[in-house]
Amino acid sequence: MTLTKLAPPLIWVLVNLQGMAPSSTIVNNLSPLEIKQTQQAKPDFSGEGRPGRRTGGGSRSPCPAKEPPLTALMPVTNWGKTVSSRPTFWFYVPYAAQQVAAGEFVLQEEGGKDIYRTNFTLPETPGFVSVSIEATQPHLEINKWYRWYFKVYCGQDKSSPPIFVEGWVQRVEMTPALQSQLKQATSREYAVYAANFIWYDAINELAKLRLVQRSNTTLDNDWYNLLKSGEIDLEEISREPIVGSVHRTGKMPIPQE
User: Fewest C-beta atoms under 10 Å: which of 38, 136, 168, 214?
Assistant: First the structure.
């Protein structure tokens, strides 16, 4: 994808409503961004348990209370999908670098075994930040579920309790139909991902575009509409600034069984 190339003003991904995969029809020049999704059955974890926490928790944390709070950019269900073998996760962090001693990101298999840990520091200013799985790490397996934790320590070191968010991600297959839709979407791949319920990638693709096109009001409006959608429901933080990635300070060793 070429980030600097501007597509027509907006894209509306039309999706049929007969429980089939989204059609490849893409209509340009509609505003604002609208995404119609399939009526396919969504995964139901009500009987299986998919605990998560979208907003910062940790009652004993020395981190000051903030409004809006630390927030994970994921659906209200606390889980989402990706087609990436090493996905990128986005968070709204209300703290500046000088307020936080350290950060930690952890990725686990469904059974609780750690497969990735990394320490990080935050950018200088509050805003949306990202964490990516390094290219040297093993890839996520298709159809498997993984649990992640994003932790922020505001004490002098990591001995104090963190404020944290947690959620789930499932890697799904990149189907030929999805590949075809993405090719037609030019620089609006995020709309295709959203129409297919692939929320982590929808958020990441749009966030990357906004980082390199900071004065693009079309992208700003698309971001607003994506975050206020019923699946995400984060309109209250949609106007916060996008800052960029955290500063990774070192991969942590994985405890051996």
Answer: 136
- Which helix (H) or strand (E) covers residue 256, if one does? none
- Candidate CATH numbers 2.40.30.20, 3.40.50.720, 2.60.40.1930, 1.10.1670.40; the one for domain 11-40+53-251: 2.60.40.1930
Phi/psi region, residue 250 (left: phi>0; alpha: psi -120 to 50; beta: rest), is: left
Mean pLDDT of 120-129: 96
- pLDDT for position 164: 96
Q: What is the pLDDT of residues 93-121, one digit of tens each?
A: 999 999 999 999 999 999 999 999 999 99
Where are the chain's structural domains? 11-40+53-251
- pTM value? 0.82
